[in-house]
């Protein structure tokens, strides 16, 4: 195999992936209709349905432009030896492989961030503002970008430096040592994400004493679920859309409710949402998800260790010197078909888990309350309730609203 062959394979994967994404978006768009589908009667009214269709259309164009620019930019960086040029540039100032790699990705990520910034601004302050969702101030928007950048440098850069150091120290043991490092980080983040990283962006306060907390405590006691930590997060700081999530393991588990969720749903509907989240824990979905993610990460590092030393990866980009960072980019593209295949399997499993968690809420609390909560959350966020089945198969980690209502026996 030659570097030219590797180059053609990389370009072929990029082009095939871009075409597939556009095809799926086309299929999804074809499902749009100006008339309220019969299945949505009683969920959307005609006016709200038209608004949801307009919202989906307004989001599509900037998404297409952003994707096209990203695709064209990546292809040009490859065929015009742009990655090789950045590699040569940073080698002028640095000699150590870790410093070269960090500065290389620093340049690439800076360019990528600058390219995506106008689209992020447009999405937040034009589209989301137009439909009444945006609560983000310009100050918060800027601070979020700065904080996100700093976290990427500290956490992403730190992990990358550690992985390269391990690679330089050993080659035969690289894959499992790197896997161990990333596995430890993943487990740490699962347990402490909500208490370590979230406070950098949002305030989390314990749920106040009152009817809601009493109802939650009563249900948790009923299903023998030890729940000491229920927090309310100021999600309204950025958006009017409601949400809730479950994080942590063992004694570190906690449930977080967005303040918008509390404002939009009734007490019974909120408890139903929590019953769903507790269902995930009872069914061990969180634990099994972590295990599967760890296994996938181990497989990735094993395959990565087999080819990272091959200079063809760097030569395909037009570079004269092989570098870990160039090999990492090439591997990321070459591995993407495997990643897509594994991701499809994870989505299938995730949708199955969502049905099981809904079923848990049905059997242990109230299906109607959960159904009403799901309807309110979907309608208030102007969700597309009639996505194309193939689009759902590729992208949805949750079943569509109509599928969930049908499984809850609330929809004929």
TrEMBL record:
Binds 1 zinc ion per subunit. Keywords: Hydrolase, Membrane, Metal-binding, Metalloprotease, Protease, Transmembrane, Transmembrane helix, Zinc. The keyword Membrane applies. The chain crosses the membrane at residues 6-24, 64-86, 98-127, 148-168, 174-193, 290-312, 324-344. InterPro entries: CAXX_Prtase_1, Peptidase_M48, Peptidase_M48_N. It comes from the Bacteria. Its cofactor is Zn(2+). The keyword Transmembrane helix applies. Residues 206-409 form the Peptidase M48 domain. Belongs to the peptidase M48 family. This is M48 family metallopeptidase. It comes from Paralabilibaculum antarcticum. The lineage of its organism: Bacteria, Pseudomonadati, Bacteroidota, Bacteroidia, Marinilabiliales.
